[in-house]
């Protein structure tokens, strides 16, 4: 009975499903050709020190211009690239391009001296990932200290012992590791202490609700305290307003990134809106939640 039912379900005409499958198929095909066709590029978004607005680094963000559809958001194509394994060659291209850019920026005033690159779990699980990183650093002349890899909490959770070993090998080379979107996953605090990471990135969803939700502000404050007590740097993502920046600075957050400081832009257009820390005046703090 269940079988018959399943068969009926499969045979049922569902145009919306067919369309979704078809679109996915076409997008995968296009994604497969995209690198050859030079449809990828990287944008860079400034990362600043909150205390004085000094430029510290930049996050490399992948951009894809589809030949007919135009720009497609990474939120749409990265999951597809992960599912199909295409993230491995694409991710390699991202690393090469970002490291080459970081090498060119070294020693140039007003340019980021560190570049952060997002890496997917699937990439990190390649047995030769560390060798690939070594090779790319060598070929591009990018100092290991100028590269930060952004990984997600889910990676650390899936195979904590494996992650500790892998991130340890990267850290021992001087490559920095950041946990991206921190607070949205389920990091085990006991593992966090043992993870060879240098930075926690507070997810944008917390920053955007700082002023409207006291609970969110409490979580953000807790992440900052947690990072500091573990001796980690803490960066807030998605900072859009002076009020958010002031709040984060006051709570002791080290670094920030967001539209307030600069939107992601091509390397050649890289510029930073400098927002110096305002002089602290007693009793005149902006009050958020
Ligand atoms: P993410 O790593 O958390 O990157 C931050 C995202 O927030 C970026 O979106 C950035 O453009 C956006 N953003 C930055 N500041 C602000 C702000 O002030 N307000 C708002 N509303 N948004 C802001 P984007 O570029 O669309 O990338 C989305 C996600 O795609 C990234 O999230 C990352 O997880 C993934 N991704 C991007 N490039 C790569 C890549 O090269 N490799 C991999 N594996 N994933 C990537
Ligand atoms: Mg990121
Ligand atoms: Mg992030
Ligand atoms: Mg994010």
UniProtKB/TrEMBL annotation:
<protein>
    <submittedName>
        <fullName>EAL domain-containing protein</fullName>
    </submittedName>
</protein>
<feature type="domain" description="EAL">
    <location>
        <begin position="24"/>
        <end position="278"/>
    </location>
</feature>
């Amino acid at each position: 009975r269940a079988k018959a039912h399943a068969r009926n379900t499969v045979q049922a005409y569902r145009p919306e499903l067919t369309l979704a499958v078809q679109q996915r198929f076409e997008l995968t095909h296009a994604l497969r050709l995209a690198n050859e066709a030079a449809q990828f590029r990287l944008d860079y978004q400034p990362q600043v020190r909150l205390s004085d607005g000094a430029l510290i680094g930049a996050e490399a963000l992948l951009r894809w211009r589809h030949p007919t559809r135009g720009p497609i958001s990474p939120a749409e194509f990265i999951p597809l690239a992960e599912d199909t394994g295409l993230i491995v060659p694409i991710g390699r291209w991202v690393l090469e391009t970002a490291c080459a850019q970081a090498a060119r920026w070294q020693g140039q005033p007003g340019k980021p001296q560190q570049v952060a690159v997002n890496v997917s779990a699937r990439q990190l699980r390649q047995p030769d990932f560390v060798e690939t990183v070594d090779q790319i650093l060598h070929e591009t002349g990018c100092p290991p200290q100028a590269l930060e890899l952004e990984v997600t909490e889910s990676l650390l959770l899936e195979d904590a012992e494996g992650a500790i070993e892998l991130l340890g090998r990267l850290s021992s080379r001087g490559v920095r590791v950041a946990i991206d979107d921190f607070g949205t996953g389920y990091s085990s605090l006991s593992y966090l202490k043992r993870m060879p990471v240098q930075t926690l990135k507070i997810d944008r969803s917390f920053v955007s609700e700082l002023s409207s939700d006291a609970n969110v502000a409490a979580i953000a404050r807790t992440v900052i305290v947690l990072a500091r007590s573990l001796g980690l740097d803490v960066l807030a993502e998605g900072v859009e307003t002076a009020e958010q920046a002031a709040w984060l600075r006051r709570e002791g957050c080290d670094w920030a990134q967001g539209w307030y400081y600069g939107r992601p832009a091509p390397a050649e257009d890289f510029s930073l809106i400098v927002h110096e820390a305002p002089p602290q005046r007693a009793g005149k703090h902006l009050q958020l939640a």
